[in-house]
Amino acid sequence: MPRRARADMIDETRAKLLATARRAFGSQGYANTSMDDFTADAGLTRGALYHHFGDKKGLLAAVVREMDAEMDARLQAVSDGAADAWSGFRDRCRAYLQMAQEPEIQRIVLQDAYAVLGAAMPAAQQYCIQSLNQLLDGLMQAGTIERTDPEALARLINGSLVDAALWIAGGEADNDRLPRALDGLELLLRGLRTR
Which Pfam families match (predicted)? Predict the structure, then answer.
């Protein structure tokens, strides 16, 4: 029984650090977040942060992994709720770009993570590519889109979506980048359809 209680305490400490860091990174940004301030807000010490995440950068990576998983679940729900596979794929791509305007995703995932972690995020990108690969392969097998190498196409589409999301996130709150990106996406995706 004491062993389980210790495991629960470890999980609770980790969850507190993640939640507190996520709020701090989302409201203040990574660079302006003091490790001492957010560990104190969580009622923990810097030692707890170092033990669980190594450093502030490791904590950011953990927050981004958590947010990526949430974003993927939301995107999967979009695909699952669509009338057909093509609509699900199209709506999923659109939803990803729309997420780029959500302040927390914008600041943590699309700005700070790229600036601080850069190429240290290949696992998240690889998961997105695999997911797109499967969707595209299914659409090819159904004859909905033209046949080509699904992994190559997944990488091209993923790269386009990520770059457009970064562009959207980098604009002012009232900018017109999202509608412009969505228009471009429609043209791009129409080109995939079988004739």
Answer: TetR_C_41 (PF21351), TetR_N (PF00440)
What pLDDT is attached to residue 120?
61
Q: Which domains does the chain show, CATH number per domain?
A: 1-54 (1.10.10.60), 60-191 (1.10.357.10)
Contacts 24+ apart (CB under 8 A), 165-170: 165/96, 165/97, 165/99, 165/100, 165/110, 166/100, 166/110, 166/114, 168/97, 168/100, 168/101, 169/100, 169/101, 169/105, 169/106, 169/110, 169/111, 170/111
Q: Is 30 helix (H, G, I), strand (E, B) or coil?
A: coil
- pTM listed for this prediction: 0.87
Q: What is the DSSP string of 75-98?
A: HHHHHHTSSSHHHHHHHHHHHHHH
pLDDT attached to residue 2: 57
